[in-house]
Amino acid sequence: MRRRRGTPGPLPAALALLLAATAGCAAPSGAGHVSSRAGGTATAVAPAPPPPVVGHVATDDPVVFLTYDDGAERDPRFIDLVRERRLPVSMFLTDSVMGPGYGHFARLRAVGANLQNHTLDHPALPGLPLAAQRAQICGQQRKLAARFGVRPRLFRPPYGRYDTTTLRAAAECGIAAVVLWRVTLEPDGHLTYAHGPHRLRPGDIVSVPSGEAPPLTLAERTTRLLAELDERGLKVGRLEDHVGVTPSPSGA
Ligand SMILES: [Zn+2]
Fold first, then answer.
1. How far apart are CA 159 and CA 207, in angstroms?
2. DSSP 56
3. Which residue, 106, 211, 225, 231, has most beta carbons within 10 Å?
4. What separation in Å is there between the alpha carbon of 8 and the centre of ligand 1?
5. What is the Rg, in whole angstroms, of the alpha carbon atoms belonging to the chain?
6. Which residues does the chain have with pLDDT short of 50?
């Protein structure tokens, strides 16, 4: 694509269309049909390949990944903990849940947390039409971009449930990986395991669901988990560095 220097004149129509298309989420369906007559530079818009679904990270590094869901709990002590322990945690956020607490998550982000996509409204996605799934996923991409200036690359479907339409929608919304989990940090601070051995292993992804009036605060639960990680010689890794980092064939 040519770039003109110094002359911020009106964009040629074809270029403007192309820019609209590469804006991905923001473009309504149909924007993928880009005419490539102008200038002769044919850019076929191939459908984005479905993102990988990751439930465990293959790594020999002694790391596990902490992922917090929904955004219902806004524990100020948790912000202190993330800052003091330099925890690169991932927050999978649902707009209708986190909505009143944008400031809390902005502060979390400022101390090292990364913000990821967990839909606008937390519906069960399987069986919903493509447009509805796109609205949930792309819609949350737009919200997070508008509120925080971030463009998440990771997506967690509500309840860990998805279908092939979910993967297509996620790809079209610019998602690089769909993230599930093997381990859950329960509201009382105990760990449960969906499958496999009942102990933490390198590469494990730990989900921390939002609790309603949980017996332990988010900071307390996380502190308990960190003590267990220390015992096992494990550290908290940055999920974004391990999943969805393979080069995207679309180059987008
Ligand atoms: Zn959730």
1. 11
2. B
3. 225
4. 44
5. 20
6. 1-41, 247-252
Tell how far the Cα of 70 is from the centroid of ligand 1, in angstroms. Answer: 5
Q: Which residues pair with 53 in a beta bridge?
A: 178
Smallest CA-to-CA distance from 28 within 145, 131, 146, 140 is with 131
State in Å: Cα 118 to ligand 1 middle.
Answer: 7
The CATH topology of domain 53-241 is TIM Barrel (3.20.20)
208-248: per-residue pLDDT in tens?
998 788 899 999 999 999 999 999 999 999 999 999 775 44
Residues with Cβ within 8 Å of 20's Cβ and at least 6 positions away in sequence, in order, are 26, 27, 31
Q: Which two tokens stand for residue 239?
A: 């999920």
The domain limits of the chain are 12-46, 53-241
Q: Can you give the pLDDT at residue 182?
A: 97
Residue 92's closest CA among 64, 123, 63, 113? Answer: 113
> What pLDDT does residue 246 have?
58
> How far does residue 59's CA lie from ligand 1's centre (Å)?
26
CB 128 within 8 A of CB 164: no
Residues in the chain: 252
Is 91 in contact with 118 (CB distance < 8 Å)? no
To 10 degrees, what angle do helices 130-148 and 164-172 make? 40
Q: Which two tokens stand for residue 122?
A: 């937390």
